[in-house]
Amino acid sequence: MLALVAPRVPRFAVFTVGFLIAGAPRFVALAAVDRLWAVYLISFVAGLSIAAVNPILGALIYERVPEELRARVLGPAHAISWAGIPLGGLLAGWATAGLAFPVACLLFGGAYLLVTLAPFVAPAWRELDRPSPTVHAPEREPSRVVPAG
Predict the structure, then answer these.
(1) What is the rounded average pLDDT of the residues 67-71?
(2) What are the structural domain ranges in the chain?
(3) What is the mean pLDDT of the chain?
(4) Whose CA is closest to 16, among 111, 121, 105, 88?
(5) If DSSP states are collapsed to H, E and C, what string results for the chain?
(6) Phi/psi of residue 12, each to 5°?
(7) If 0-12 CB within 10 Å is exposed, 13-18 middle and 19+ buried, where does residue 12 land?
(8) Using CA atoms, how far apart are residues 9 and 1, in angstroms rounded to an integer?
(9) Does residue 105 contact residue 27 with C-beta atoms inside 8 Å?
């Protein structure tokens, strides 16, 4: 069912709203809400809202990166993304040890909010809704086998 709806919704709106709901509200909930069920509920809604972001990014990559360059683009992009995961945990540990837990949560929530607002100020993000450019592989000459001897 979602596969029928996905091509008909604007990518920019789904992407930005998904990130806005998924990011900062979780940190604010951890800092300000004292009911565990409310934190779970906010985290659940955040998880649902971020679910559409990765398919949009994946579709963009396969639409806009030429096939012969995908390994060169996706390899470093995934490596850098995954390398940041332990760094985030380390920074969170230092912030929590040095500051009160609610202050650290609000600090990271504010940083997350600033990052998620970037699509609203940078015009390049509006290209999410533009049709993808047609990517053609360069014309190649057939390989010629030179007989040995």
Answers:
(1) 91
(2) 9-129
(3) 85
(4) 121
(5) CHHHHHHHCCHHHHHHHHHHHHCHHHHHHHHHCCCHHHHHHHHHHHHHHHCCHHHHHHHHHHHHCCHHHHHHHHHHHHHHHHHHHHHHHHHHHHHHHHCCHHHHHHHHHHHHHHHHCHHHHCHHHHHHHCCCCCCCCCCCCCCCCCCCC
(6) -60, -45
(7) middle
(8) 13
(9) yes
Q: Which amino acid appears at position 39 of this protein? A: V
**Residue in the block written with tokens 């972001």:** 53
pTM exceeds 0.85, yes or no:
no
What is residue 88's predicted lDDT score, i.e. its pLDDT?
Answer: 86
The two three-digit tokens of residue 140, written as one number: 């190649």
Tell me the pLDDT tens digit for each residue of 89-144.
899 899 989 998 999 999 999 999 999 999 999 888 888 887 766 555 555 555 55
Amino acid making up residue 63 = E
